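Data availability (excerpt). All sequences and predicted token strings are deposited with the supplementary files. A representative entry, Trace amine-associated receptor 13c-like, is shown inline so that the format can be inspected without opening the archive.
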Amino acid sequence: MDDTQLCFPQLNSSCIKPRRPHTQAVLLHILLSSISLLTTALNLLVIVSISHFKKLHSPTNLLLLSLAVSDFFVGILMSFQIILADGCWFLGDAVCMLYCALDYVVTSASVGTMVLISVDRYVAICDPLHYPTKVTMRRATVCTSLCWACSFLYNGVLLKDNLKQPGRYNSCSGECVVVISDMMGVADLILTFIGPVTVIIVLYGRVFVVAVSQARVIRSHTFTLQGPQTVYAKRSELKAVRTLDQSSVFDVTSVPLELWLFYFNSCLNPIIYAFCYPWFLKSVKLIVTLKIFEPESCEASVL
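Structure token line:
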């Protein structure tokens, strides 16, 4: 048909390019481009902050660094999603497979990191006396490395047929799809969504119960010894509770029903850091003003 738009007009096997109003297409590109740029920039600030300043080298921050790395790659991968927004893929089957594989790996690594963060917060609040001995930099490094290694290995097995022959499941030229078997799809749903969410809900539920019971004990002791007075929680404890709540939300949205929610969540993470962690704002100020290039800047007190 004369009015039909094709991705590759010179090919008989070309996919049909979906029609979209010009205004809608422009707004979609602006929105995705803005989120992509903001996601990449903000998570890069988190990566530089935790990597550069020695005061921030802690097990918890190492997990946040892992999450920021995955979110950073999400921002980069959004540039490919912008291409797909037009309904056609012009970069070839090999690049398509690379994009899809990285998308799967980053998503799995993000989910795994959120589970590790929930375990870290569980030990910190439910077993604080043994936290320094149970959660060490070495163990956090090993767990984070294993998380990423398992993500690469697991998704390599999941996408092995697609990796052997990129584009084998494309129905027309200009399409970018990957296909996994029904059995592997069910296994992936359990391993990357149902399982992690269940673990996090159980751990956070236990943390909530412990926090409430401790608060009641403290309140009763304070009332008995000193009479009625207002009890103020430490700022670090408040941050821990907020972080726990946010982590559960992050984990659920790491495997979203809508793709843009996943991308927007990766952009939102560092913004929430700014409200929960004072060190982030201090670090950003030093980075933006280029003071990190000064001698001994890594020793700066940002806590």
